[in-house]
Structures are given as structure tokens and as C-alpha cells.
Design brief:
2 copies of one chain form a homodimer. Chain A is of the alpha/beta class. Helix content of chain A is 54%, strand content 13%. Chain A contains 13 helices and 8 strands. The first copy, chain A, has helices spanning 13-24, 38-46, 57-61, 76-83, 100-108, 156-168, 178-205, 211-216, 222-228, 233-242, 244-266, 270-289, 295-314; strands spanning 3-9, 28-34, 52-54, 66-69, 92-95, 118-124, 145-150, 172-175. Chain A has an 8-stranded mixed β-sheet with strand order 3-2-1-4-5-6-7-8, with helices on both faces. In chain A, strand 7 (145-150), helix 6 (156-168) and strand 8 (172-175) form a beta-alpha-beta unit. In chain A, helix 4 (76-83) packs parallel to helix 5, helix 7 packs across helix 9 (222-228) and helix 7 (178-205) crosses helix 11. The longest helix of chain A is centred in the middle third of the chain and has 28 residues, at 178-205. The radius of gyration of chain A is 21 Å and the shape is globular. Chains A and B meet through helix 7, helix 8, helix 9, helix 10 and helix 11 of A and helix 7, helix 8, helix 9, helix 10 and helix 11 of B.
Chain lengths: 315, 315
């Protein structure tokens, strides 16, 4: 038992997957689940994800040893301000936000060391393109990295407890500065996601094409982008707007490289094209060697998806 | 039995997957496999994919009822010219090339109706990012579309036989004009693939980033693009160079849309961003409803990948 009472704010894909772990791993005595959306709360209740289900922040956070922010990041500031009067002194605040400088700024302007609170930023790098409490599952985090971004509002004890919590979810835990986190994630996550959204929009809008035909032959490659671009719109909008400068810089870099490749094609520069593709093939090898793409892991996720699809179809 | 003797030119991922089907489905009496690469031929032999293994074109195509071009498309012209003297009259020529106008142009300038040959362009829309005969497998085609692009060099009898061959591979068969094929594939396959190559190059080259860190956190999204960008460099270079005009047009359309999205982010136009992401989510639903992304199907592919990874690891 790590915590007597834990509170999850926002019971979406990540919040609900963590809830499942906290109960299964026996890490918490009482788990309170807050969501402002009544439907999500009902689903969480029906799935028996916690012990308390409420849209009242006081009920949610009173006596909590830890409060985990798991809503879209743009709600963090308001929530932090709202729960402040009800939080017990010494309570630990953490989050699962994909952008760490903004998240911590929003939380820490209301909750910080000076007021007797402990804050440890966190980001479990895991997910699927689905959202909502019914789509979470305990093994979502398995084998993935959870990144903690402690700062002057953190304590070694709190870091140790949160590390333990994520390790119980079968995650590997890493620690870095919030700014470094945002820079790395812009490259490995935010830019790829943005490109996926953009290309799905482009292909779907092409004049002179039949939408039905685009969908029919989507297995040619387009499909893989639609999977990524099926992700939660609110969450991703918030990420791009709150990690803006780095994302904008990377878009420029990407466009520069794409235009160079376009030029290679226009001028039949087959060697240059081939060399790029050889290089990307090598990067693929590096990813596999680093065990960051494991068929057995993907298979497990797909089994989960298949199960969910069957549930959807039965509805 | 559809054919007495069939010849596959080029025993890569697609050629070897088709070979496995032709034998398993009892569609051919004698299967001749040609490849100019000795290593590929040896692998095909060790895997018992056919009956004749040769780098001699005369041996390969003599008495063949059907010759299937399965090399990169830029080799088609030379091969067509080289086999002409050895082909029997009335032989059927088909191919598996991803670009149909160019492929057919290259084949038909040497082999056509006037000389007593029958040509039916084909493109089984299936594949993985792996290449080589050892990575092919019979169920690769299952549930996918095979597109035939018959023209004035085709006959109804030949179309029927090739349709039967692909249907025995569990494919659905569709027929369209070569030009239409190239336009549709540019959108659903060539552009997405090009973008994947480009973004993997961009992210891997970012100055001020550690390569190791990019790989380590690649599961954040980058990984999915490396999978696509791990595909055969020669095949894809040829596709972009031979479907050039349409691909160049679509790159321009894509850049235009990406710049618009960049501007939305810069000016905090959250609503516009959200609306795009909502729209792409809907497109994802269309893909799933059209059963073009089925977890059970993906799972089967992953099982195959896991098996191959195990084989690789044991080497």
C-alpha cells in the first residue's frame, strides 16, 4: 500500500488505465475518481474502477495523499486553483500530461512548496488512439517509459512513491528536466502526430477523388495514418498549443526536408532518394534493436483492441 | 490447376508470398522462379518455394503459360525485352507493380497483342515493411484488394485466370484503368509513404538531439513512422520516380495544408485545430466501418512478424 487515499482527476484512457493498476496492485486503500462529465463517471462506476465517484472536487480530494491530474492539460490551472482549499497539507500532486513545462506552470502557480504541497510532474509515455474510461486497460503501460520531471517543489520521498506506483504498472521510470522532456517529445511524439493529422486531412479533402475509394483502398498505407489521427482531438489540440514554439520549429524543419525530397523526385535524383530511404531503414533497425517495437507487445494491444471492437459491435 | 507452367520474375516479399500460394492452392503444375540475385535464389530453393530456380531467363520463361513480373518496376522494360525471344505465343504476362501506367508502358513496348502476347496489369495491394523471399508468407494477401488494370492487350480469358489466381490467395479483385489506379494509389499509398520517409529523416537528423534518446522514446509515436519507413528503398524510389507528376502534385497539396495548420497553431486558433482533428477522427471511423483495419487481421500479421523476429534472433 503506497497511498491511503488517491484521487484521479479525469477518468479518460490514461486515468482509467492507472485506476485499474492502483486497485489491482493494491497500491491504494481508497481511490476517488473525479470527472466533470457525468457519462464518464457512470462508466467508471459501472466498471468498478474506484471507490468514490464524484463531480465534487472537495469530496474528491479531501484527505488525499496524492492527486493525479489526468484531464487535458488546458484544464490543469483551473483545477489546481479549485482544489487548493480542500487539499491537505503535504499532499502530493502529480500529473500525466504530455507537455511538462506548461502543465507544471499551471499547477505550481496554485500549488507549491511555499503552501505546503509537493509537486512531481509525470508523463507515462503510453496510449492508444482510443479515449474514454471504457477503453483503458491495466497493461497499457507495460514495458513503456514513464518520465518524471521533478523540480524545486518535489521531494525525494514523493519521487520514490510515484516511481514505485509506475513501476507497479510495469513501466520503466526515467527522470529529466521539464524543458528537455518537451523538446524530446516534440520530436518523437508531437511532430509525428501533427503530420498524421495533417495528411489525413489532405488526403480526405483531395478534389477529384471519391471518399469511398480512398477508404476502400486505405490499407495501401493511408490507414496507418488514420489510426494515429483518430486520437483524442482535445488532448492533442492542447498539446500543440502548449508546446507551441518547439512544435512550430520542427514543422519548419520538416517542411524544409520534404521540399528537398520533392526536388529530388522532380529532378530524378534517384541516388539521393535511395540514400535517404537506406538511412531510414537503418533507423528502423535501431528502434527494433532498442526493443521499442516488439511484435509480442503490439499483439497484446491488438488483442485488447479486438476485445473492445467486439464489445462495440455488440452494443 | 490454372496454369501448367508459371514463372515469377523476382522472388522478393510479394513474389515469394505469391509462390507459396500458387503451390499451396494447387494452381500451377510447374513453378519457375527467376532472380538475378544468387542469394535470393538460394533462399527460395531452401524454402522450397518452386520447382525451378534459375538466373537464366530462357530456362525461366520457356513454355510458361503465365509470367509474373515481381521485380522493382524500373527493371520491367529490360526484362520484357530480354524474355521476348523465349516466350511462347499466347503466353499471359502480368505483374505486381505498384505503379501501373509506367509498368504497362515498359512491358507493352516489347510484349503486346500484335506479337501474340496477352498482358493484364495487376497490383495486389498488400505488403509489410520487410523484403526478401524469407519474409513472404501465404496469408499476406488475405482480405486485401488486388487491382487489375486490363487494356487493349488483355483478353477476358486471361483476366478470368488472373482473377482466379488472386481469389485463391483470399484477395478481393477489382478492375480499373491504369491511370485511375495511379491517381488513387498516389493518395492512399505513395504520399503517406513519402511523408513517413521524410519525417523519419527529419527527426533522426535534428541537431541538438541525441540519437539514442530519439530511439529510446520512439514509442511516443515516431516508431510507427519508422515501421513504414523501413520499407524497401529500391521499390519505393522507383514508385516515386515513375508516378512522379501525381506524387509531386500531392506533396504540394500536403505542404499547403500543413502550413495552414502551422498558422492555426501560431495564432492559437484552437477551434480550427479541433475541427480538423474531429474530422480526421470521423475518417478513422469510416476506415474501421469499411473493415479496412481489423485487429484480428493485424494480429495475424504480427504473429508472422514475431515468428520472423524469433528466426532472426536465432541466427
Amino acid at each position: 500500500m503506497i497511498f491511503n487515499k488517491a484521487t484521479i482527476l479525469g477518468i479518460g484512457l490514461i486515468g482509467s488505465s492507472l485506476a485499474r493498476n492502483l486497485k489491482q496492485n493494491n497500491d491504494v486503500q481508497t481511490l476517488a475518481i473525479y470527472d466533470k462529465n457525468a457519462e464518464n463517471l457512470e462508466k467508471a462506476h459501472a466498471l468498478k474502477l474506484g471507490d468514490i465517484y464524484t463531480d465534487n472536487l472537495q469530496t474528491a480530494v479531501a484527505d488525499a495523499d496524492i492527486v493525479i491530474f489526468a484531464t487535458p492539460v488546458c484544464a490543469f490551472g483551473e483545477l489546481a486553483q479549485a482544489i487548493k482549499p480542500y487539499l491537505k497539507k503535504g499532499a502530493i500532486i502529480t500529473d500525466v500530461g504530455s507537455v511538462k513545462q506548461y502543465s507544471l506552470h499551471e499547477i505550481e502557480k496554485h500549488l507549491n512548496k511555499a503552501d505546503g504541497f509537493v509537486v512531481v510532474g509525470g508523463h507515462p509515455v503510453a496510449g492508444t488512439e482510443k479515449s474514454g474510461p471504457e477503453n483503458g486497460f491495466a497493461s497499457l503501460f507495460k514495458g513503456r517509459w514513464s518520465i518524471l520531471t521533478p523540480d524545486e517543489n518535489s521531494t525525494p520521498e514523493a519521487i520514490a512513491k510515484i516511481t514505485e506506483m509506475w513501476e507497479h504498472c510495469d513501466m520503466k521510470v526515467d527522470t529529466m528536466e521539464a524543458a528537455h522532456h518537451d523538446k524530446v517529445m516534440a520530436a518523437v511524439s508531437h511532430l509525428p502526430q501533427l503530420i498524421a493529422y495533417s495528411i489525413v486531412g489532405t488526403v480526405a479533402d483531395l478534389e477529384g477523388y471519391e471518399h469511398k475509394e480512398i477508404i476502400k483502398y486505405s490499407a495501401g498505407g493511408f490507414r496507418d495514418f488514420t489510426r494515429i489521427a483518430g486520437s483524442d482531438p482535445t488532448m492533442w489540440r492542447d498539446i500543440f498549443l502548449t508546446n507551441k514554439q518547439t512544435v512550430l520549429e520542427l514543422i519548419q524543419r520538416f517542411v524544409e526536408d520534404l521540399i528537398a525530397l520533392e526536388r529530388n523526385i522532380r529532378w530524378d535524383e534517384g541516388d539521393k532518394i535511395f540514400n535517404l530511404f537506406k538511412r531510414t531503414q537503418k533507423i528502423r533497425k535501431d528502434v527494433i534493436e532498442a526493443r521499442q517495437d516488439q511484435p509480442e507487445h503490439e499483439k497484446r494491444l491488438l488483442e485488447e483492441m479486438a476485445r473492445q471492437t467486439n464489445i462495440d459491435n455488440k452494443k
